[in-house]
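wait is this the right file?? whatever heres the structure
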């Protein structure tokens, strides 16, 4: 997958009010690395997410802030995952007065409330609770650009993982109506048509759900009409490398659980079947 990724510079100005600093942690799930964003145009800036706290990242942050003749007043965390929170310690070591905001905050952090707005010169960010990827997940609307910091609900390349598919789909629908411009994702390049990408995500998830239902309607090569998540993956994701099948199986399980809540499937042990499905 790494060979297919778009090359991104460590530090890049994306707009007059937004600079992306990569987290220095590229990988299979972090893509080019976690995106952190320095937001604003004046002497006080906001920082969205903190990467894992890699030495190259904090060095790039310090260098960029110095070049901008600015300081960081507040950090806004999109969600609890370590590749977004790991740099908090480095930031507070360098800027002891910095304020760290997060939904469901840890000791020493401040709460982000749904609808709360954070303002510095040149940028106003409004936090919206959009669970799905995680229960605490927040996105941030940049009013001046009609843009959205999407965290890990929407990525610049590929698709996102989630804890609860039904909740995640509701959040994607909510995000669609928040903005009309570009999306600044937690990983990957900037998305020029943010709402369009979210629409693609919604359609993709609906297609995957339909694939699961259609496969459940067919006879399992192992016999019968009951399938395990991994058996479904081997059919639906036959074009995906085998080492990614476990991650795909987790996604399929989320689809099955959503269908179960809707009364469309049932489970016996690890085997899932359509409810009331006729084999004729």
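ok assuming it is, sequence goes like this
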């Amino acid at each position: 997958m790494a060979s297919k990724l778009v090359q991104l510079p460590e530090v890049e100005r994306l707009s007059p009010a937004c600079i992306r600093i990569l987290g220095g942690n590229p990988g299979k799930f972090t893509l080019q690395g976690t995106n952190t964003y320095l937001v604003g145009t004046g002497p006080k800036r906001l920082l969205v997410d903190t990467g894992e706290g890699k030495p190259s990242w904090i060095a790039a942050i310090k260098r960029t802030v110095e070049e901008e003749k600015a300081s960081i007043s507040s950090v806004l965390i999109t969600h609890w995952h370590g590749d977004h929170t790991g740099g908090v310690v480095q930031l507070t070591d360098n800027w002891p007065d910095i304020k760290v905001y997060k939904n469901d905050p840890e000791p020493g952090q401040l709460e982000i409330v749904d609808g709360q707005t954070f303002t510095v010169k040149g940028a106003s960010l409004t936090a919206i609770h959009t669970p799905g990827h995680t229960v605490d997940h927040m996105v941030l609307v940049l009013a001046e650009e009609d843009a959205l910091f999407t965290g890990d609900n929407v990525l610049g390349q590929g698709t996102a993982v989630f804890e609860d598919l039904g909740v995640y789909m509701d959040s994607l629908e909510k995000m669609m109506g928040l903005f009309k411009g570009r999306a600044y994702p937690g990983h990957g390049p900037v998305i020029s048509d943010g709402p369009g990408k979210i629409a693609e995500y919604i359609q993709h998830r609906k297609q995957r759900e339909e694939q699961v239902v259609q496969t459940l309607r067919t006879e399992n090569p192992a016999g019968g009409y009951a399938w395990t998540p991994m058996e479904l993956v081997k059919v639906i994701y036959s074009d995906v490398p085998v080492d990614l099948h476990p991650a795909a199986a987790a996604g399929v399980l989320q689809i099955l659980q959503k269908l179960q809540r809707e009364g469309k499937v049932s489970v016996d042990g690890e085997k899932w079947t359509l409810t009331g499905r006729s084999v004729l």
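The chain has a mean pLDDT of 95. so i think its the right one actually
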